[in-house]
Design brief:
With about 260 residues, the protein is an alpha+beta fold. The protein is about 20% helix and about 25% strand. It contains 3 helices and 12 strands. Strands 1, 2, 4, 7, 8, 9, 10 and 12 form an 8-stranded antiparallel beta sheet that branches. Strands 3-11-5-6 form a 4-stranded antiparallel beta sheet, with no helix packed on it.
Length: about 260
């Protein structure tokens, strides 16, 4: 009978059972499941796979030339992030008086139309659709044939250029997907309404495009280039988003 009692105790998790062991096994299973979810959840950063081979990536810092995309798409209704400009030796001069002409500091393109002062070295900010190695091979073939790629071809159709950037400048990007889809841009906290992009569809990723020679002065020497840091952490934002509903980019968790 003692043996039978032991069996019943084991089934019931009694003194002869292994209740602690069962609990530990459950905890280990839960931990493994959580770890598997973490492995399948993409980490926020700059994507090596979706960025141009000519782009340099060090954490959240990008340099070199070409198109660079973040690792995760924008899935929330309203998102905001910043690009912090790194260009030592080229600071922005403080305004001389209250009537300073701030527009002289940067030039933009109006709703896709070229401005009168089009700068081929202007860095482009905004979003882009998913890219892969085949996209960059096709783009390279266009360059080899001396064909000028259109914004649709080079992946910058949903981006806007901002030229004459200076060290420690902050370019903010705010994306709204509900109601009227819209992409807004800010330079050092000041809105750039002329850059606004309206009516876009599809899955998009935060992106930046650095032209070859961007950031140089005079003859635009390539190795005098610019670097920029993508800032997705709200605690590290230097400026305010255009509205409280624009939150930092959220990484969706779950099975992919």
């Amino acid at each position: 009978m003692g043996c039978c009692c032991s069996c019943f105790d084991g089934i019931r998790g009694g003194r002869h059972g292994n209740a602690d062991g069962n609990e530990k096994a459950t905890e280990m299973t839960s931990a493994r499941n959580a770890a598997n979810v973490d492995k399948l959840t993409p980490r926020l950063g700059i994507s090596r796979a979706m960025s141009a081979p000519t782009i340099g990536i060090q954490g959240f810092k990008v340099s070199g030339s070409g198109l660079a995309l973040a690792t995760i798409p924008i899935e929330q209704d309203a998102a905001y992030w910043e690009w912090h400009v790194n260009l030592p030796g080229l600071p922005r001069a403080p305004p001389e008086d209250d009537n300073d002409e701030g527009d002289e500091f940067h030039d933009v393109q109006m709703d896709g139309k070229e401005s009168t002062n089009d700068d081929p070295y202007a860095v482009k900010f905004g979003v882009a659709t998913r890219k892969d190695r085949n996209f960059y091979k096709h783009l390279e073939s266009l360059e080899d044939e001396a064909d000028e790629a259109s914004p649709i071809d080079d992946g910058t159709a949903l981006m806007r250029p901002i030229s004459n950037l200076r060290h420690n400048d902050v370019v903010g990007v705010a994306v709204q997907q509900s109601d009227l889809p819209m992409i807004q841009f800010l330079l050092n906290g000041e809105p750039l309404p002329e850059c606004t992009i309206n009516r876009f569809r599809g899955t998009v990723y935060p992106a930046i495009y650095i032209p070859l020679g961007a950031g140089g002065e005079g003859d635009r020497i390539e190795d005098e280039g610019i670097s920029l840091v993508a800032e997705f952490n709200e605690d590290s934002f230097k400026e305010m988003s255009p509205h409280a509903r624009f939150g930092p980019l959220i990484v969706a968790r779950g099975i992919i």
